[in-house]
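Aim 2 progress update. The chain analyzed this quarter is reproduced below.
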Amino acid sequence: MLTYFDATLAKLSVHRVGNKTLNEFYSLSDNTLQIEDETLRRLLMQYFLSPFEKSYEVFRFTHSSDNLNLNELFHFSSKIFDDQASFHELSGQITKHLYNISNHPKIKAGELYVATFKDIQLEGDLVDAIGIFKSETKESYLKVKPENGDFALSYEEDAINITKLDKGCLIFNTEKDQGFKVIVIDQTNRTDAAYWKDEFLQLKIRNDNFNKTNTTLGVCKEFITNKIDDDFEISKADKIDLLNRSMKYFKEKDSYVIDEFAEEVIGNPKAIESFKKYNKEYNDEFDAGLDHPFDISNAAVKKQAKIFKSILKLDKNFHIYIHGNKELIEKGFDQDKSMNYYKVYFKEEQ
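Predicted structure tokens:
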């Protein structure tokens, strides 16, 4: 759903925000952070953006009065998109807003990063975005390095694990009249999670048939591509067959029913159980609304069809495109050449 191969980090400001209830304070930096080290820039892109690669739910800003301009983050985001020169000042206003709603005793203090990005790909389109990220959890790390023919051990306390983003959101400069497109991450304790999405950002899910179709296809692809291996030994050709059958179901059906899909596409009872478990875990975590039937969006199917790969890559010599009957391709091993091979059956060349 989201890729950032062509994305660049344009601006970054870092502040610190405490818990207002505990009489902690916020601290604002004087200037944006200038990043000269390309390795650091790459690590920051990974830390900020990689957690969103598997986020299928799209949200929008909202407000109880139905006046979007009364939503603080919508207001600040609109100003930043309209005037990049105001970025650092508005990043401080965003920090103050977060501080003012941080009134639950379990909310942790941490650094707040506010950034702007160019050319993030979302749902097939390149879009500029604002990122807001909070790091709360600190860890200790061991360091090992050669020293005088031996190895020396040292450590660093209160460091940030760049594979574990605590909280974050990306606000995309598109569909402003509907409240922008927003995706959100919150990896911390659910007892205090509501303040990030519901109070700080004030979001509502874009829970239309397009989003449900898009999300479900994403979940199916993730399960078949990466998760099914946890329980079954399955060949790449069989995975491609499952992906093709999944896409065929969505192209031919008017509505999605999980039991029907599981029986017609997955078939194997144990695999069905594994798929339903994965679907339920995703649905429970993101409140995605995938546990009930819904009408399939053809537009979402067309978008997802572009990334449902039916290509079997063999070394650097061959690519086999599998679009139909998997029974017409056989895998074997040639003892004399000590190499794998595929045998493909067909009636005529085209």
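The chain has nine helices and 16 strands. The longest strand covers residues 110-122. These observations will guide the mutagenesis experiments scheduled for the next reporting period.
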